[in-house]
Amino acid sequence: MAGRLSGKSALISGGASGLGEAQATLFAREGATVLVGDLQGDKGNAVVETIRAEGGEAAFIRLDVSDPESWATAVSDAVSRFGKLTTLVNNAGIFHPGGILEETKEGWDRMIAINQTGVFLGMKAAGDALLQSGNAAIVNISSLYGLMGSPNAISYHASKAAVRLMGKAGALEFAKRGIRVNTIFPGQILTPILGDITPEQDAAIKASIPMGTVGDPMDIAYASLYLASDEAKYVSGAELWVDGAWYAGQ
Ligand code: NAD
Questions:
Q1: What's the mean pLDDT in 198-221?
Q2: Ligand 1 centroid from CA 172, angstroms
Q3: Looking at ligand 1, which residue's alpha carbon is closest to its atom 41?
Q4: Against a cut of 0.85, is the pTM above it?
Q5: If you measure from the C-alpha of residue 179 to the centroid of ligand 1, how many angstroms do you get, rounded to a whole number?
Q6: What would the pLDDT profile of 116-163 be if each residue is shown by its tens digit?
């Protein structure tokens, strides 16, 4: 049966966990071949096994998104393994709290290297292969924290706001060249990135979300599926909030 991503070949950074795992699994179900790129080999290989058990085609590669050589290896692996690269999901990311007075230079540099520079390096490394495919899509995962501030996450806000503008710039750069670039802004989604939260924190998070609940990784995966598919062939430079109406109140 033809899927919504039949004929597509996707590289998904951070595909071993959380939102990346959901996107890898859903993309494969919809007919894409998927290269899961992540630092976490055991978890990444487990995602690949799950996809294969469902009849999909996937492989794992160790990818450090802050390293240009690691990106070059991943892109060439995708092309040699699957014959082409049509789809890049820049999903890998980290979070740590810290306001301006608490954040260290080291913490700032690490956040920017992974969340911001990692997205630039991914688009740069995959660019030629995506152009050669003739019909490509990039989906960048920012955050609602790339649109709005909070008092305790300075470097995360800076990194995710940069992802927003890189999406717009990329959409314009590639508008006539067969690559669409779109950005997803997740609200609060239940994944390991949230860390250990107390029942009180959990209640406070839910109280701040108009729908009254956190999201599921598949909520992001379905948004990404649409933007990666040819159903979105006239959509580029778009910003899709998946956040239980959180941003509607900002
Ligand atoms: P997660 O921690 O479950 O997954 C992140 C993945 O990225 C992990 O598998 C991790 O190993 C990988 N990763 C980290 N550094 C890497 C590196 N240098 N190179 C390659 N891979 C690396 O978290 P998640 O919630 O699935 O996060 C996915 C993306 O969604 C992130 O960019 C995050 O900022 C964004 N996001 C998440 C939420 C949320 O509430 N979960 C909200 C907004 C945005």
A1: 93
A2: 26
A3: 189
A4: yes
A5: 24
A6: 999 999 999 999 999 999 999 999 999 999 999 999 999 999 999 999
**pLDDT, tens digit (0-9, with 9 covering 90-100), for 99-112:** 999 999 999 999 99
Ligand 1 binding pocket includes 65 (Cβ within 6 Å): yes
- Residue closest via CA to ligand 1's atom 31 equals 93
Tell me, letter by letter, the H, E, C secondary structure of 156-205: HHHHHHHHHHHHHHHHHHCCCCCEEEEEEEECCECCHHHCCCCHHHHHHH
DSSP secondary structure letter of residue 145: G
Please say if the pLDDT value at position 89 is more than 90. yes
CATH of 9-243, one of 3.40.50.720, 3.40.50.12500, 3.90.650.10, 3.90.1720.10: 3.40.50.720
Instruction: Give the N- to C-terminal CA distance of the chain in Å, as an integer.
Output: 42
Q: Is the CB of 14 under 6 A from ligand 1?
A: yes
* pLDDT tens profile 167-181: 999 999 999 999 999
For residue 32, the cross-strand partners are none
Domain parsing of the chain, residue ranges: 9-243
